[in-house]
Design goal:
This protein is of the alpha/beta class. The protein has three domains: 255 residues, Rossmann fold; 130 residues, Isoleucyl-tRNA Synthetase, Domain 1 (Orthogonal Bundle); 53 residues, no CATH class. Helices cover 46% and strands 15% of the residues. It has 16 helices and 15 strands. The strands form five sheets. The protein has a four-stranded parallel sheet. Strand 1 and strand 2 form a beta hairpin. Helix 10 crosses helix 12 and helix 15 runs antiparallel to helix 16. It is elongated, with a radius of gyration of 26 Å. It binds one RNA strand through helix 1, helix 5, strand 9, helix 7 and strand 12.
RNA sequence: GGUCCGGUGGCAGAGUGGUGAUGUAGCGGACUGCAAAUCCGCGUAUGUGGGUUCGAUUCCCGCCCGGACCUCCA
């Protein structure tokens, strides 16, 4: 297989990916709402999309990757109000953390990172279009999208409008014509952030922000839209409704790529369940590359149950790869890595790609330099092996603090005082977190525990 | 309640209508003063009951179990 197959949520089938413009593939990923630290679930989403972008860049001359920042949101407003600061002051830290955390996972930055606050004109224009062509209406200072006006509404997420109305579990505001109608614009009281609009001072709803930003930077039609599968409804259903109704005849995104949820103890991570991990917390426990690797050890359309054991296994596998690379320092030539390439082309089958990585590592460990070259080439495709083996195994070790102990141990071994050499080995491990391994001929090697 | 998805060895996790990848853990061996790493070898799995088929883990139906979504959610 030489062509990319992707599962498309829209058609519920794996399809051959055909770009609208092979000279410029255009992709959009729903980015963070910046009111707090990014969590592991966000990270899975971004890492998976990162692998897709890397693959697309191998296949096409140009890829435009847009990932937005949602900086207009009621949770942001709540924090701003609670702390008595502006929304810029609330979002500044989370935006910086997000960039730091995603960088620590070696994800590529998007080409364009639009912010909702910079797209009010586009948001307002889309709402005006929707009102003009009968898909939206104004009511009590709000502007609402009329789901009844859009025969296609609900098709994407596979639900009927009746079902949505019957299933509505929230109190339905009296000004809504249908229970399923959703907010495009809502009024802001003087104490809340707001922007002037034809409907008074207010702020946009969440869904319209993504419609506006993707339109501005990728156009009415683009290739790929990604996100977590919990966004299928209502967020993506609503984006489609807004964009397709505002731009009649448009198709919005052709292919929808959704990753399944990351679970902790078998359940979706959430603050209320107390099984919530921020990326920052996890990065304290393990190298970013190990977290990245952990997130690609299961297929993106399967749930992934996060655990400490998983982190350990991810590290152990990377140890193996770095050992293989370490044996062939000169093997930097790019070589064909069909096993890995084919696995990724088949709907981003990262577990199969990793299995292929192990095959290459087997070769490299058996002394085959071409195997090491393949391993490195494949790793690059997956965003792995960003360090040298030296950094991976020994980065952060305080050489000065342990060189005396190591010298003593060398002497003890020469004297065949194994009780002493074992004692020192134990001290190195327990007090310095350093494993020392003996090699033939009196040589040794150290690495982090 | 409605819609959807999934149940593969101790654990993690792919694929497939025809004797089930890969990793990790475990066990045995080689190597080592002992370890570690590496190498060789071993073992254990397709939730359950039917159906279709020459043959099903794979397709269909029931059941059991788990998860997601049903307007905060990656």
């Amino acid at each position: 297989m030489t062509q990319l197959m992707l599962y498309n949520t829209r058609t519920r089938a794996k399809e051959l990916f055909v770009p609208l413009d092979a000279e410029n593939v255009r992709a959009y990923l729903c980015g963070p709402t910046v009111y707090d630290r990014a969590h592991l679930g966000n990270a899975r989403n971004v890492v998976i999309f990162d692998i897709l972008i890397r693959l697309l860049r191998r296949l096409y001359p140009r890829v435009t990757y847009v990932r937005n920042i949602t900086d207009i949101d009621d949770r942001i407003n709540e924090r701003a109000a609670a702390r008595g600061v502006t929304i810029e002051e609330v979002t500044e830290g989370p935006v910086r953390w997000y960039h730091e955390d995603m960088g620590a996972l070696y994800t590529l930055p998007p080409d364009i990172e639009p912010r909702a606050t910079e797209h009010l004109p586009e948001i307002i224009e889309i709402i005006e279009r929707l009102i003009a062509n009968g898909h939206a209406y104004e009511a009590e200072g709000h502007v609402l999208f009329s789901v009844a006006s859009d025969p296609a509404y609900g098709k994407f997420s596979g639900r009927s409008t009746d079902e949505l109305i019957a299933g509505a579990r929230v109190d339905v505001a009296a000004y809504k014509r249908d229970a399923g109608d959703f907010v495009l614009w809502k009024p802001s009281s003087p104490d809340l952030p707001g922007w002037d609009s034809p409907w008074g001072r207010g702020r946009p709803g969440w869904h319209i922000e993504c419609s506006a930003m993707s339109w501005k930077h990728l156009g009415e039609n683009f290739d790929i839209h990604g996100g977590g599968d919990d966004l299928i409804f209502p967020h993506h259903e609503n984006e489609i409704a807004q964009s397709c109704c505002a731009f009649p005849g448009s198709n919005f995104a052709n292919v929808w790529v959704h990753n399944r949820m990351l679970l902790v103890n078998g359940e979706k991570m959430s603050k209320s369940l107390g099984n919530f991990f921020t990326l920052n917390e996890v990065l304290d426990k393990a190298p970013g590359e190990a977290i990245r690797f952990l997130l690609m050890r299961s297929h993106y359309r399967s749930t992934l149950d996060f655990s400490e054991a998983g982190i350990k296994e991810a590290r152990a596998e990377l140890d193996r790869f770095y050992r293989a690379i370490q044996q062939h320092p000169g093997a930097d030539r790019e070589v064909a890595v069909m096993l890995v390439f084919d696995a990724l082309l088949d709907d981003l089958n990262t577990p199969a790609a990793i299995a292929a990585l192990h095959k290459y590592a087997d070769l490299a460990l058996a002394g085959n330099a071409a195997g090491a070259a393949a391993l490195k080439t494949a790793g690059k495709l997956l965003g792995l092996f960003n360090m040298t083996p030296e950094e991976w195994f020994r980065g952060g070790i305080d050489q000065g603090a342990i060189e005396g102990l190591i010298a003593q141990r060398v002497l003890a071994r020469i004297a065949k005082d194994f009780a002493e050499s074992d004692r020192i080995r134990d001290v190195l491990l327990k007090e310095h977190g350093v494993i020392i391994e003996d090699k033939p001929g009196g040589a040794y090697e150290i690495r982090k525990a």
